[in-house]
UniProtKB/TrEMBL annotation:
Protein name as catalogued: Type II secretion system protein GspF domain-containing protein
Species: Candidatus Roizmanbacteria bacterium RIFCSPHIGHO2_01_FULL_39_12b
UniProt KW keywords: Cell inner membrane, Cell membrane, Membrane, Transmembrane, Transmembrane helix
Signal peptide start and end residues: none
Domain Type II secretion system protein GspF: residue ranges: 66-189, 270-391
KW Transmembrane helix (keyword) present: yes
Record-annotated membrane-spanning stretches: 166-188, 219-238, 372-393
InterPro entries named among the record's database cross-references: GspF/PilC, T2SS_GspF_dom, T2SS_GspF_sf
One GO BP annotation of this record: protein secretion by the type II secretion system
Matches recorded under Pfam families: T2SSF (PF00482)
Length: 400
């Protein structure tokens, strides 16, 4: 909330504006600065500011930038309170400003940074909070914040590569379906109506196209409603545990996409576990956190099984092998890393390998998708040409 205040500072009356969780927090903050509070009023936000505060949210990019800036300032010798104070002056986004103010208020009240972050799990996941907690316990918060910032940067870069590789094919496919729908529903029927007045035999392709066009022309509003309804039902089905697992299993059986999904899950999990172990987090706690790093239910359940086996005393390599999900190279490297006591370094190396493999998988997928799109588009255009042009040829032949 934004407040306007009037206070005495060393005998002088000062007025100012400040954001705080509530009025009491503001008064405590001003008293901590040696001021005597005279009055506090809530500052009403403009309509635009209210809209921004309501509908904007803290994005993953905001978290990455927040972490990098905090890490740099802590590494330069500033305290966490000073770092948060500087960030408040540099931030323009309302949702991020509110987040920083709430964290700053909790830290000034005596809470640790990890405790303050726990209140905002929509922005900071368990991995993030666990690493901050480990840094506070070891007294190396600045070093771990730098590692965390590097990891988030890598994650952002990796996701950006995959997203960038898939955006173009997705847009082409979407545009292709829209054009096909418009052509079949509104354009083709006007052309085919010309043949109704002539007593000629229409080829089978034209008959099929006329039947499809008539169907789409009469029912297109219902078709759109049906597609939207099925999409909503499918979304609700995916929200269930059974639906999500069935869909994830289906994706892992697809010939091209499955490799991208596997490599992406392995990159995130191995890199995350490496950083956790290097930061002093136990293997069991690390496995518990890694379970939540992937959205794929198959890998979530696999890591839960690994956690259970390791908890019972099984070596991590054996536990990974028993799931039947993880590739042999990860099983072997994890076993070697555990035996040599360099599990964190070994996992870091294997995560780089999986990252390279995932990039190759994405390139292979896009290389195959583009010709497939052109093939489907060419077949559709060829079918239209045959259906529309052939009757015209038959008609001119009959006149001769």
């Amino acid at each position: 909330m934004k407040f306007s205040y009037t206070a005495l500072n060393k005998g002088n009356t000062v007025k100012g504006k400040y954001e705080a969780e509530n009025e009491q927090k503001l008064i405590e903050y001003l008293r901590g600065k040696g001021m005597t509070v005279l009055s506090v009023t809530i500052k009403k936000a403009s309509a635009i500011a209210s809209y921004q505060a309501t509908f904007s949210r803290v994005s993953f990019n905001d978290v990455v930038d927040f972490t990098r800036k905090i890490a740099m300032m802590l590494n330069a010798g500033l305290t966490i309170v000073d770092a948060l104070e500087i960030l408040k002056k540099q931030t323009d986004k309302p949702s991020l400003m509110t987040l920083i103010i709430q964290i700053d208020t909790d830290v000034r009240a005596g809470a640790s940074l990890s405790t303050a972050l726990k209140k905002h799990k929509n922005a900071f996941n368990n991995l993030y909070i666990s690493l901050i907690k480990a840094g506070e316990a070891s007294g190396k918060l600045d070093e771990i914040m730098l590692k965390l910032a590097d990891n988030l940067d890598k994650e952002r870069s990796f996701k950006g590569k995959i997203r960038g590789a898939l955006v173009y094919p997705a847009l082409v496919v979407f545009a292709m379906f829209i054009v096909m729908f418009v052509m079949v529903t509104f354009v083709i029927p006007q052309l085919l109506n010309l043949y109704k007045d002539f007593n000629i035999d229409l080829p089978i392709t034209t008959v099929i196209l006329m039947a499809v066009s008539n169907f789409f022309q009469k029912t297109w509003p219902l078709l759109i409603i049906g597609v939207v309804g099925l999409s909503l039902l499918f979304k609700r089905y995916l929200a269930t545990k059974t639906g999500k697992k069935s869909f994830d299993l289906f994706l892992l059986k697809l010939p091209i996409i499955s490799n991208v999904i596997r490599m992406s899950a392995l990159v995130d999990s191995t890199r995350t576990l490496s950083i956790l172990i290097a930061s002093g987090v136990s293997i069991l706690d690390g496995l518990s956190i890694v379970t939540e790093t992937t959205d794929n239910v198959v890998y979530q359940e696999a890591f839960q099984n690994v956690y259970t086996d390791v908890e019972k005393g099984s070596p991590i390599g054996k536990a990974l092998e028993d799931t039947g999900v993880f590739p042999p190279i990860l099983v072997q490297m994890a076993s070697v890393g555990e035996q040599t006591g360099n599990l964190d370094d070994t996992l870091s190396r294997i995560s780089k390998y999986f990252e390279m493999e995932s990039e190759l998988a994405v390139k292979a997928m896009t290389t195959l998708i583009e010709p497939a799109i052109l093939l489907v588009l060419g077949a559709f255009v060829g079918f239209l040409v045959m259906s529309v042009i052939t009757p015209i040829y038959n008609l001119t032949s009959s006149f001769k």
